[in-house]
Amino acid sequence: MSCGVKKWTFQDRIVAPSLLAADFGRVGGETSRAINAGADWMHLDVMDGHFVDNISFGPAVIQAVHETNDIFLDVHLMITRPDHFLPRFIAAGADLITVHVEPEADHDVAATLKSIRDANCKAGLALNPATPFDAVLPYLDDIDLLLVMTVVPGFGGQSFMSEVMPKIEAGVKYRSENKLGYHIEVDGGIGSETAAIASAAGANVFVAGSSTFGAPDMSAAVLAIREA
Ligand code: DX5
Ligand code: ZN
Prior knowledge:
alpha/beta; TIM Barrel; 8 helices; 19% strand; globular; binds zinc ion
């Protein structure tokens, strides 16, 4: 099972609507709606009720999206023991799998990132607002994407936390000093205004749930984020 081919670089601006804000009764149709609205990736928020205080969906929903639509699947695992569940998300059709660096995720981060890449998937590493940038330093040479959370994970519709922008800047600095190519993704409270702030700091992948699926005109919302 090989994940999505590498088509994008960090110079690309990528808009990734989050399924968490969609109608769960119609995940296939909602994903098609996002594609028609110009989405580049689909962001899939997996929550286990342990790592975050919410439960969303698992591999079966990712498989349903994968089987009904052709779009790059950006899977965000807000779960403990992501290493244990990796094979199921890979089999379900994930193209990029992001795991959290916090100790509460209870896994060997380096080993998990290696397993993701060994499966020919793209590997992402996420850090929460309270987690210092130094926590991800040991792993930056081995990732395809750095996810700087701009809300405390667990729920859509929260407010953007601009205090985490220095972590994006630090990610850009490390990447250029070390000639690396990882994307920098922001996730939480992203709309056209906050996407402009995050873009100025150096982010290139914009996850947006309520501001896209909740918009009267999803295409206009996606375009406004892309052009922010
Ligand atoms: C929060 C999730 C985010 C969330 C974004 O834990 O990781 O992806 O769905 O939702 P909005 O864009 O509504 O803040
Ligand atoms: Zn997310």
